[in-house]
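Lab meeting, item 3. Inverse folding demo.
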């Protein structure tokens, strides 16, 4: 059914965005922790 494919694609898109933003936030947090230790 067409609607099912659209819903699955939407959920995958949102999931990928959450994973990407979460990974970016984790990377930025780790980088800020390294700078705090140096200072």
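The presenter then showed the designed sequence:
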């Amino acid at each position: 059914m067409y609607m099912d494919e659209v819903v699955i694609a939407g959920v995958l898109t949102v999931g990928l965005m959450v994973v990407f933003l979460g990974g970016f936030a984790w990377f930025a947090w780790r980088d800020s922790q390294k700078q705090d230790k140096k200072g």
